[in-house]
Design goal:
Layout: E1 4-6, E2 18-23, E3 36-43, E4 49-52, E5 59-60, E6 65-68, E7 77-82, E8 102-106, E9 112-117, E10 127-129, E11 138-141, E12 144-146, E13 152-155, E14 170-172, E15 181-183, E16 188-189, E17 208-211, E18 220-225, E19 228-232, E20 238-243, E21 257-259, E22 268-272, E23 276-280, E24 288-293, E25 303-306, E26 315-319, E27 323-328, E28 334-339, E29 350-352, E30 361-366, E31 373-374, E32 377-378, E33 386-390, E34 431-432, E35 435-436, E36 455-456, E37 462-465, E38 472-481, E39 492-497, E40 503-509, E41 519-527, E42 533-538, E43 557-561
Antiparallel strand pairs: 1-2, 2-3, 3-4, 3-5, 6-7, 7-8, 8-9, 10-11, 11-12, 12-13, 14-15, 15-16, 17-18, 18-19, 19-20, 21-22, 22-23, 23-24, 25-26, 26-27, 27-28, 29-30, 30-33, 31-32, 34-35, 36-38, 37-38, 38-41, 39-40, 39-42, 42-43
């Protein structure tokens, strides 16, 4: 299952958020629709236990979690699938879902609040949203709405966002009427569970994501179903579709991720099959931007995206049955790989600042319940289980929010303190401090209080001492910190012949720390030869790599014209 990162109450006290996840026993041998377990919450700072949910109300350990202030009282509620115990007589081996499948809710200390039976949850994911603009919010699972106290409000009869393994719907104002809609693979419902005009659209149901690919007034809906990915407009017409590579049986239904993977200003879709993780660019002559080998027999595993360097180049983060990997968003090159066992359901890694150090981390769930063979060995007996948090040892990664509250996370669905917006701002048209969102399953970079340094130079910050002519010149570079976080000493500066990345001529480092809004000076001796242009690049060790993450890498260089030595 997908872990969630969230504060336990609002106002948020000092300290790290909680990481909540469903824990299950190991050694099952295979995954099924229901595995009894318990919800656990640990500190994002160091992983110490905060609480374990009431064992009298076991959770379905392979279902997903949604967290938010449902009652509007400043206390986070956690909602997930319950562990059913009753199967029809026609299913003596319990191969299908139990008839008492449903949801269970806990308070911010893991105490039981309520449960609802008779719902189709399985591996599915609830969402939390405010559908009616009242003090209390609601839970949405598929096309069913449940109030803050566990009472069913309404149920839609058509699409559920289901890929047979459980519903993965979302909430968004698709038609722009100022009222939240429930979005599934083949049906958009109003907030009373009635299909909107033109829906259902006769297509296969499946997991969804929402963004604006075309620049129209309304967003589009991405659906993954039956081994294909498609783009639908707000009225249900199919605008584009493609077959997912590496899905030989055509039953793939993995939740899609949306971002500007290539950093070129156009949206792309990331989705997994059985043997390939693929990024598509709808409407392109060759819609496959790249495809990378994976191992995921279920074809149902999700992914997330983040711009770790703050450079506008996004990376995909994905875990299959054997590894957690970070892929270059433009090329698909593997940037990071770590062994990680998972029987795989609908889970995906999440990116959040879990230890409030103003840097992003990757949070990954691990289980070894299946007898799966990986290149590094078998799941069973591997000892891999629980939660793993990755960070960048060189501290390059920029900052982000300390929250990722549900599987269908899309930034505007939840406030920083865990409260639920009374009227959710559309993600596809929202801007955070001048930077557009328009994504799905992605956390923002360096916005607002998500502080990061911003090292900057311009041509006016570089002065030239010609006294060493004709063999050398001496540059004095003023390096500014336009960001909100102090920069430690040792920031590298590289001087190139011609453009950045050309022939390396010299390097130097800052000697002291640079406070936000302040500057520091560095003197660099550069050999003089027959060239007319120099580029000075800050936070560059001479290989194009820096040592600190920034919220903006577009102001790190200055170009100088070098004439003959003065008379």
């Amino acid at each position: 299952m997908t872990p969630v990162v969230t504060p336990l109450q609002s106002p948020t006290p000092a300290g790290a958020p909680a990481v909540a996840f469903n824990a299950i026993p190991g050694g099952q041998g295979s995954v099924s629709f229901t595995i009894p377990g318990l919800m656990r919450a640990i500190s994002g700072l160091d992983g110490t236990d905060l609480w374990t949910s009431d064992p009298a109300h076991p959770v379905n350990g392979v279902s997903q979690i949604a967290a938010g202030d449902l009652e509007g009282k400043g206390q986070t509620t956690f909602v997930t699938g319950r562990a059913g115990t009753i199967w029809p007589s026609t299913d003596p081996q319990h191969l299908g879902p139990p008839t008492d499948d449903g949801l269970v809710a806990f308070d911010n200390q893991g105490r039981f609040l309520w449960e609802v039976q008779g719902l189709n949850v399985r591996w599915g994911a609830p969402s939390i949203a405010n559908l009616y603009g009242t003090a209390e919010s609601q839970v949405v699972i598929g096309a069913t709405v449940i109030d803050a106290h566990g009472h069913i409000v309404c149920q839609g009869a058509d699409g559920q966002g289901d890929n047979y393994f459980g519903p993965l719907s979302t909430v968004a104002d698709i038609d722009g009427d100022g009222i939240a809609d429930i979005v599934t693979g083949n049906t958009v419902y109003d907030n009373h569970c009635n299909p909107k005009p033109g829906w259902p659209n006769g297509q296969a149901d499946g997991p969804v994501a929402v963004a604006n690919f075309t620049g129209d007034a309304h967003p589009q809906i991405v659906v993954v179903a039956n081994g294909t990915v498609r783009l639908q407009d707000w009225q249900g017409s199919v605008l584009w579709s493609a077959v997912i590579p590496g899905d030989p049986v055509g039953d793939g239904g993995a939740p899609p991720t949306i971002a500007d993977f290539a950093g070129d200003g156009t949206l792309a879709i990331g989705v997994s099959g059985q043997s390939q993780y693929t990024v598509f660019k709808p409407f392109a002559p060759n819609p496959i931007l790249w495809s990378s080998p994976i191992q995921d027999s279920n074809c149902k595993t999700g992914s997330s995206v983040f711009d770790f360097q703050g450079s506008g180049a996004f990376a995909a983060v994905y875990s299959d049955e054997c590894y957690t990997r970070v892929y270059d968003g433009k090329t698909g090159a593997t940037l990071f790989e770590s062994p990680n066992a998972s029987c795989t359901a609908h889970e995906n890694p999440v990116i959040a600042d879990v230890d409030v150090d103003n840097r992003a981390e990757i949070v990954v769930a691990t289980n070894s319940i299946c007898d799966i063979q990986c290149p590094w060995g078998k799941h069973l007996g591997s000892g891999m289980h629980g939660i793993t948090v990755f960070k960048d040892l060189r501290d390059h990664w920029v900052s982000t929010r300390s929250i990722w509250n549900e599987h269908a996370y899309h930034v505007t669905n939840i406030n920083d303190d865990g409260s639920v917006p009374a009227l959710e701002q559309p993600n596809w048209s929202a801007s955070w401090f001048g930077k557009p969102l328009n994504n799905f399953r992605l956390n923002p970079v360096g916005y607002g209080d998500y502080r990061a340094p911003d090292l900057a130079i311009s041509s006016g910050d570089v002065s030239v001492d010609w006294s060493g002519c004709p063999t050398k010149i001496r540059l004095t570079v003023t390096v500014w910190n336009r960001g909100a976080v102090l920069v430690a000493p040792g920031i590298p500066i590289a001087v190139y012949q011609g453009q950045p990345g050309g022939t390396l001529l010299a390097t130097a480092q800052t000697a002291g720390a640079i406070d936000p809004g302040a500057s520091g000076q560095v003197t660099i001796e550069v050999p003089l030869a027959h060239y007319s242009t120099l580029s000075v690049v800050v936070n560059d060790d001479g290989t194009g790599q820096g040592v600190v993450g920034e919220c903006n890498r577009n102001n790190n260089d200055a170009t100088l014209s070098i004439a003959q030595c003065p008379e």
